[in-house]
Design a protein that fits this description.
By secondary structure, the chain is mainly beta. It has a single domain (5-90), classed as Lipocalin (Beta Barrel), CATH 2.40.128.50. The chain has one helix and eight strands. The chain has an eight-stranded antiparallel sheet. The two termini are 16 Å apart.
Length: 93
């Protein structure tokens, strides 16, 4: 599986990367959204595997809920989609 990917929706950009055998998801928030949430512009989550394609995204903030992510629809070893919070994010070309 190609684990470095840029995935996007309007106003939101995700990157998934493999570092030392662990998967990490980085979320780039637009500055206004980050200010409203009181968060930094970039949020990083370690993806905890539930299966080969499904993961838990635990935040370092104890007040945040654990979220889920799915990486799927592989084409030649590259994921075409990231699914988070009931939203689908297509891979950037």
């Amino acid at each position: 599986m190609d684990t470095e990917a840029g995935l996007t929706r309007p106003g939101t950009r995700y990157e998934v990367a493999d570092e030392d055998g662990k998967l990490y998801l980085t979320l780039d928030l637009n500055p206004m959204h980050a200010r409203i949430l009181g968060k930094p512009d970039r949020l990083r989550y370690e993806l905890q595997p539930v299966s080969e394609t499904h993961f838990l995204m635990a935040s370092g903030d104890p007040l945040d809920d654990i979220q889920t992510a799915a990486i799927y629809d592989f084409d030649d070893g590259r994921a075409r989609y990231l699914h988070t919070n009931c939203r689908v994010h297509p891979r950037l070309p």
